[in-house]
């Protein structure tokens, strides 16, 4: 028998439906390079999804805070418009003002998160550029001495 005429085949397998079939003989590439590329791509997708989710959550939180803010403003305006209520409800007005301040601070914190993060990234990039220029300067000095 000539070895070129022999073809290797996958063994037959009995399925629950009582049919003999050959399992899929194509195998996925699990080499280190393919696995790394696949895991990097998966991480990128996961980070994009989490960023979108965080952004949506942040927008929902801001929207929720605004919904909490407007009834408090209306209560405050009712108290201020009625001078008789103002005399008796100074502590209530103070509590409403404190609650409004908390909401405003939380809204400001949520809205400024992105700019703070971008500023941190900008500072990091500036720091890395300075490091790189120092290294280039050291290498140019050492190469000129040699």
Question: SSE layout and pairings?
Answer:
Blueprint (H helix, E strand, L loop, with lengths): L12 E2 L5 E2 L10 H50 L1 H6 L1 H56 L1
Antiparallel strand pairs: 1-2
Helix pairs in contact: 1-3
Structure description:
It is a single chain. With 146 residues, this protein is mainly alpha-helical. It has a domain at 39-114. Helices cover 77% and strands 3% of the residues. It is built from 3 helices and 2 strands. It has helices at 32-81, 83-88, 90-145; strands spanning 13-14, 20-21. Strands 1-2 form a two-stranded antiparallel sheet. Strand 1 (13-14) and strand 2 form a beta hairpin. Helix 1 packs antiparallel against helix 3. The longest helix has 56 residues, at 90-145. It is elongated. The termini are far apart. Residues 1-5 have low confidence and may be disordered.
Beta strand count: 2
Arithmetic mean of pLDDT: 68
Distance between the termini: 71 Å
Reported for the largest beta sheet, the result is: 2 strands, antiparallel
Short description:
The protein is an all-alpha fold and 146 residues long. The protein contains three helices and two strands.
Any key phrases for this structure?
single chain; 146 residues; mainly alpha; two-stranded antiparallel sheet; 2 strands; disordered N terminus
